[in-house]
Amino acid sequence: NASVTETACKNGMAEACDRLGDAYHRGRGVPLSFKKALSLYRQTCDGGRKRTACWKAGMIVFKMGGDRKEALNLISTSCHKYKNDVACVNLAKIYLVEPSVAPDENAAEKLLKQACKRGNAEGCDLLEQVKAP
Q1: Are residues 57 and 41 in contact, defined by beta-carbon separation less than 8 angstroms?
Q2: Closest to 55 in 3D by CA, of 89, 32, 31
Q3: Phi/psi-derived region of residue 32, left when phi > 0, alpha when psi is between -120 and 50, beta in every other case
Q4: Which residue of 36, 64, 71, 94 has the fewest CB atoms within a 10 Å radius of its CB?
């Protein structure tokens, strides 16, 4: 129920804000709104659920053509500081598609190795593709 989740979010429950952000991001039980989802993810990222909410906020900022530095910082924080392998794979994909944003030539490969080592199948698959001649 969106109204119960919204009340819990307003009362400071970061998990509820994250779930409400997901609802707006997907248009489930509430009107689809990337703007509201982003606002909730940012609030949740700042409020403690940094592992997933920072990554989700970063991906929305990136996909909507927002501040690339902010987007990469949010995704990178989720990947490196909070060990979110999905965020690492997404960051690697960004580096592969837009090499001008990568901190070094091998950044994508390093991220994919890291994600693969921790058991992320997509990271392993992409790593094989990147390493293929």
Answers
A1: yes
A2: 89
A3: beta
A4: 64
